[in-house]
């Protein structure tokens, strides 16, 4: 591998690295974002910029030339730039808090709006748009403008002149332009993050594969016989899957790399070996008494992808993701309540979640005291009875949100909330986004 590839692997394989710890420039093409903002400015006449979590522009310094004259003047004054960046940082946090565009007044007295860029629930940057006026300047505006900027300068003639070049826009125009940038930028960032994750997975598989090569070379020096054998051992897989998820994952990832080595870069053999592994896994989970339809669906999807690609490396990634899906569903299936009273409580909640339930009502369904019912439920499932009610409501609402014909108010009422606003608040607490955003992201 060349030096560039080595650097990429080291960068991409840093464990525990979260999206907000990466620069936006690491995830997407800055030039593409700049072109989008330029097109937006050409179409609307409004200036737009993208800043990181600290309020600092992600574009080169020369990009400041594209700012309006008013901002260029403020930036040139001592302390002006830092004041603006601090304002952008605060506005970005507010926008991220509500997961929607946030209209604010900048420290210099003009109207701007911030649209958050969010990846996997993390705020990685903010689109700042403006600066504009929402009304024709009157006497009080000039007095206030002078007062808000007197810490930066005593010469206001040039600033006042620059205000005359600013656009006057309506509230509807502000909201529409803010939402447009929010949707476009977040769509591009999401695509960029998915590409980054794919590259990260490629790098991991490549490293595992090279480690396996060295391991196999060492073993071959001590092997007395060259009789062909397969690494796939059904009994060993069963034993390994009894371990915790992390250990099972390590074993299966090593198995994938070993099988790739056995394939000797032969695409046909690689496909056959990965298919054999997935079929073997399905037999193992069947022996373990787990629900087969879920795992068969994983296999069908993965095997279909394996035979549609001509990249051996990509086949490794597809198989690795299928293994992740296996382990995830196995873990979910393993969490089953052992106490029969828990099932009674769950069945009652599932049948009555849309009603205004109380702990007493739920407990009575299993003929238990509220204190005892709450304690055993928390011990078994890790949730209080009322938190489980909320969880069921949210899961039911997510299914309804996939149907665009249902209004948010109607869905809220269906799952037990009279107030759609309160439903939105609870939904955001559980999912990290609003019902409307969930519907957009999962549009059919």
TrEMBL record:
Q: Which PROSITE patterns match?
A: HTH_ARAC_FAMILY_1, HTH_ARAC_FAMILY_2
MF-aspect GO terms: DNA-binding transcription factor activity; sequence-specific DNA binding
Q: Which InterPro entries match?
A: Homeodomain-like_sf, HTH_AraC, HTH_AraC-typ_CS, PocR_dom, Tscrpt_reg_AraC-type_HTH
Q: Which residues form the HTH araC/xylS-type domain?
A: 343-441
Q: Where is this region: Disordered?
A: 1-20
At the top level of its lineage, which domain of life is listed?
Bacteria
**Record field: transmembrane:** none
Biased composition, Polar residues: where in the chain? Answer: 9-19
Which Pfam families does the annotation name?
Answer: HTH_18, PocR
Q: What UniProt keywords apply to this chain's record, in alphabetical order?
A: DNA-binding, Transcription, Transcription regulation
PANTHER family xrefs: ARAC-FAMILY TRANSCRIPTIONAL REGULATOR, HTH-TYPE TRANSCRIPTIONAL ACTIVATOR RHAS
Q: What's this protein's name?
A: AraC family transcriptional regulator
Q: Which organism is it from?
A: Acetobacterium bakii
Q: What taxonomic ancestry is recorded?
A: Bacteria, Bacillati, Bacillota, Clostridia, Eubacteriales
